[in-house]
Fold:
Amino acid sequence: MATTAAIPATGAAHDASSESGLWSWIATVDHKRIGTLYLFTALFFFLFGGLEAFLIRLQLAQPNQHLVSAEFYNQLFTMHGTTMVFLAVMPLSAAFFNYLIPLQIGARDVAFPRLNAFSYWVYLLGGIFITVPIFFQVAPNGGWFGYAPLTTIQFSGGMNIDFWVMGLQILGISSLAAAFNFITTIINMRAPGMTLMRMPMFTWMSFIVQFLLVLAFPPITIALVFLLFDRFFGTQFYAIAAGADPLLWQHLFWVFGHPEVYILILPAFGLVSEILPTFSKKPLFGYHVMVYSGIMIGFLGFGVWAHHMFAVGLGATADAIFAMATMLIAIPTGVKIFNWIATIWGGEVTFTTPMKFAIGLVALFTIGGISGVMHSSAPADTQQTDTYFVVAHFHYVLFGGSIMGIFGGIYHYFPKMFGRYMSEKLGTWHFWLNFVGMNLTFFPMHFSGLLGMPRRIYTYDAGQGWEKFNLASTIGTALLVIATLVFVINFLKSRKGGAPAPNDAWGAGTLEWSIPSPPPDYNFAEIPVVTSRYPLWDLKHPEMTADLAHSGPDAMTITDAHATPVHEETGHKTAAELGIPMPFPTVKPLFTALGIVIMFGGLLFMHLDKFALAMTITLGGATLLVGSLYAWLTSPLE
Structure:
């Protein structure tokens, strides 16, 4: 059994584990604390986006209702989509990226701790920037896809779209910073013996997502820059009368928009691929094929964007190519579903709350996937496009897929993050209310959509056959609200009052369960030498992994992960005692992020005919950005 010695200190070791209070969170560069910040912030935005959705459903529950104005309704559906995609689901995935990736690959930290903190603060400030306007009824109102030229100043005056354009630019900076950080971390910081084909499936899916982020965000960045210049500086990138291509925005947006679907769903696939083996007491079936199918999904995801544009008249050749690509991408996705079923088949299945949510994802995402394949047919898509059938499809993918997987991940990794179990009783109530509510909300939309109910309408007349479907969807949304309240109660109560959990709370097989919970700031007192895909099972249940390839007789040297109650943080040795250097906390990333937001925000005053004030604020933000970045880059890390 082999280990490597603890890394010797090169300077004074910083002990972050003893820090507490608000300042320690503001200045933190610990990837686990940053993951926790992402989790709480994204859950708040998830609740906010859910409230927006509930108001939408109340408005549509009956014909000819006027609970909100038409203009505020436009702001609600725009901000609901924007909030859920950019402020809730993506950052919830980022919470797991931050917390789990270093633990799963046997690393003490991420490659760039300060860049990691910077990405969180940019996300938080960008989220506030784009969300606060709704309280003053000047929120973005052009749909989460912001089609130009309808969003140019000619057709969308006021500041509403400005908040959306600049808010998405700010959030894109956060996503790109995180992506470069995790790519570098996964490539360079794996423990000895942690080959690519021994990485846990969540880390693999996250790895693919980081490349999708790096490749998909430049097109929407360019699209937003063009729109920003059109709105603020009088350019004509989207002015059709000046000779602009009327489809330019759609191509740029959907080249980003469809890979974005896989940015949202692949982390949930990774979480499910950790949960199902754990509670089936079997290794993941077809590991290599699952990896290759994930890579293929990422690759093909860039070749299907124009199936969002079948109705714009691209021509038969383009329609045929994108239809075939859309059909083709169903193959690697289907491979994953069959492999998950094969993982469960014949296993010693335990129906815990994480397992229920994981199985729920498999079932609900399958429905969304089937309706997605239906859209690969251009004639069928022409009938369904811009109807509630499409709304049903993508909610089965993103709610039935991403959200179900993320909830499963929260229940699964809560003991690792907080040292306590969440309530199984409340978790079961949450699951069934969520499962029933989700289907009651979105399944009827297939029928209202096929009956011709268009998306984004503010109200509708009676007698079109939509009434009962809309009422059912609103009742389902009420169940989802109740389910979410049950989750919030469970989450908050369990943090302090949940049953204490051992280090390996579920009898899992991967590396993150070998260390105390919550983990110390340095993660691993000794960096393990990994010789297989499930090192804990090799150590404690070798019969489970007898058929897997190993490079040596033993997996690694670890202490019994069941031995120490994880809530006893006093049992941890500090980094100073072990001589492990840790990065110093710093607020420089926060001020750098603040400079970016102020710099963009100053432009808003140009539409108030206050050019001098706009330039003053913008230059002030740029000065804060450059000064903070200089201080950040010239100060020692440890």
Summary: The domain at 31-569+577-583 is CATH 1.20.210.10 (Cytochrome C Oxidase; Chain A). The first helix runs from residue 22 to 26. The chain has two domains: 31-569+577-583, 584-638.
